[in-house]
Write a structure and sequence with these properties.
single chain; alpha/beta; Nucleotidyltransferase, domain 5; 5-stranded mixed sheet
Length: 115
């Protein structure tokens, strides 16, 4: 099972997917609920943690699609100031450290190109 998250300006859409691509669970979480006083990465990690608790089996990895530019290490390098404080956030590294799982972080265009 894979946990996937799509980070947008105003929300994070998360889902748990089976190995054959079926949606097992999904959730939307607002990101600007307190005008970004809570950093988006904190909201993401809490939402991932919550969804993983509901997982009907072992989560084997995390996939992230996000606005802005993302380098090969999974760090947001340019979010065009669409989310305050988001530039320079090592998304993949933070999630790998927190959940001890492989993480792939891409920008939206890269994720769409991969299907």
């Amino acid at each position: 099972m894979i946990l996937c998250a799509d980070i947008r300006e105003d929300m994070i859409r998360l889902g748990l997917f089976s190995s054959d691509g079926h949606v097992l669970s999904r959730r939307d979480v607002r990101t600007a609920f307190d005008r970004y006083r809570t950093p988006v990465q904190n909201t993401l990690m809490e939402a991932c943690r919550s969804l993983m608790k509901e997982a009907p089996g072992e989560v084997k990895g995390i996939g992230i699609s996000t606005l802005g530019c993302v380098d090969f290490s999974g760090t947001v390098t340019d979010a065009r100031d669409r989310i305050p404080g988001y530039n320079g956030i090592p998304l993949a590294g933070l999630l790998e450290k927190a959940f001890h799982l492989p993480v792939c972080a891409l920008n939206h265009a890269q994720a769409v190109a991969l299907g």
